[in-house]
Amino acid sequence: MPRWAIVMVSIGGNDLIQALPSLSDAELDAFPRLVRGALERLAHAKLFVANVYDPSFGDDSNNFLGVDPGIARRAHRRVNEILAAETARVGGCLVDLHSHFLSGKPSWFTRQIEPSLVGASEVRRAFLDEIVRTNAAAEL
């Protein structure tokens, strides 16, 4: 079946990151099914799915969650692993916001976690780079 559109998916990173430390194993276990169901509905399109960035730039001294960063990082890593696996399963392309933002600058954020205008442009840049890299627009 031809793909008639490019679809870009980004889970609300700021909301998810704030919730990660309090998610139970059962809630994290349900996440793959939820992601799978959503992505399967979009499989008709050339699909680009972003993983979740780390607004601390990988530096635990920038921890603003008020919880053990190890707990938050384990949950964050698990969510990103799920997003990568489910994206690959439906033949989509993973947009690695996590890696991109690890090399970012504080100016990419406002209030620690919310992307600034520059940060939002960096999200768009990461998607555009993957679209261009995969030559997705030419395939439509």
Describe the protein.
It is a single chain. This protein is of the alpha/beta class and 140 residues long. It contains 6 helices and 5 strands. It has helices at residues 13-19, 25-41, 69-89, 97-102, 117-133, 136-139, and strands spanning 6-10, 46-50, 93-95, 109-110, 114-115. The strands form 2 sheets. The protein has a 3-stranded parallel β-sheet with strand order 1-2-3, with helices on both faces. Strands 4-5 form a two-stranded antiparallel sheet. A hairpin with a 3-residue loop joins strand 4 (109-110) and strand 5 (114-115). The longest helix is centred in the middle third of the chain and has 21 residues, at 69-89. The radius of gyration is 15 Å and the shape is flat.
Quick description:
The chain has helices spanning 13-19, 25-41, 69-89, 97-102, 117-133, 136-139, and strands at 6-10, 46-50, 93-95, 109-110, 114-115.
Strand order of the largest sheet: 1-2-3
Q: Largest sheet, described in full? A: 3 strands, parallel
Helix content range of the residues, please? 40-55%
Count of individual domains: 1
CATH architecture: 3-Layer(aba) Sandwich
- Principal-axes shape call: flat
Report the average pLDDT across residues.
84
Tell how many strands the DSSP assignment holds. 5
Q: Supply the helix-strand structural class.
A: alpha/beta
- Per DSSP, the total helix count is 6
Question: Helix and strand layout, with pairings?
Answer:
Blueprint lengths: L5 E5 L2 H7 L5 H17 L4 E5 L18 H21 L3 E3 L1 H6 L6 E2 L3 E2 L1 H17 L2 H4 L1
